[in-house]
Amino acid sequence: MTKQQMDQVMLGRQQAATSLQDDTDLGFGQEESKLPKELQALEHQNGNNMPVAGEKPISSMHDYSQEQALDIVNKMPDYMLGQYIDRFMSQGAGEALSDKRQFAQRAVEELYKENDNQPLVGEVKLSLTRIMPSLSMDTSTIDKNATLFAHMDTAGKVPASPFVFVKWVNNQTGQVLLFEKKDIVTNSNQNWVSFKPDDGWLQGSYDIRFYQFTSELQPIAQLTYQIYNVEDSNLSTNNGGAVTATARN
């Protein structure tokens, strides 16, 4: 699940006031397929269910421990866990997971885990385009609103798959910026995932880690990069009557 989805699960867990038998039907069509109120906030994916103005804001995952997150997974019935995972995966993605509970447990573990810089089989390079660069770009100065492309090259050492799982984190704040499955090109050793934070890039250290999209969620490639200076190309200033702005790629 994405960071937003995890936060919303946590919020729903706080608000749950009834038993599983009082669950709200989310349209699966069978009594056995109803989800508890603690998952009602996940009716819409990728932030489409942001709270209405004036409502209590969604809590952060940092308000909860890894143990509490695992408790949600471990207490969820198999049928419910399976339907929940399938609901937020593209068609056919869930079939790649032989053990969905193990996948959910590994996802929680990795969500809270700090980068250990372990050597991995793949390589990650950054660029501002979809073209795989020979060297990773210099990120010391970057436009606040730039979209970065994280290219993964496994050199054929990882089984081909149409999916990959990625974690993108700000090491300074501890914020997990991206944590979800992404579709990639099948039978290609080189693939990319693009990303831009909603509020723009900040100075600091960042980590990107790619995983095989399997129940084991095995790390296959990672990169740590630094941003020392952030420029805003959308911010124009008057300087002696002239308008200046940083050029964008």
Description:
Helix 2 packs antiparallel against helix 4. The strands form four sheets. A four-stranded antiparallel beta sheet has the order 5-4-7-8, with no helix packed on it. The chain has a three-stranded antiparallel beta sheet with strand order 1-3-6, with no helix packed on it. The chain has a two-stranded parallel ribbon with strand order 2-9. It is α+β, with helices and mostly antiparallel strands and 249 residues long. A hairpin with a 2-residue loop joins strand 10 and strand 11. Residues 10-60 and 236-249 have low confidence and may be disordered. It starts with a helix and ends in a 5-residue tail after the last strand. It has helices at 3-15, 66-75, 78-87, 100-112, and strands at residues 123-127, 141-143, 148-153, 163-170, 176-183, 190-195, 204-212, 219-227, 229-231, 237-239, 242-244. The radius of gyration is 20 Å and the shape is globular.
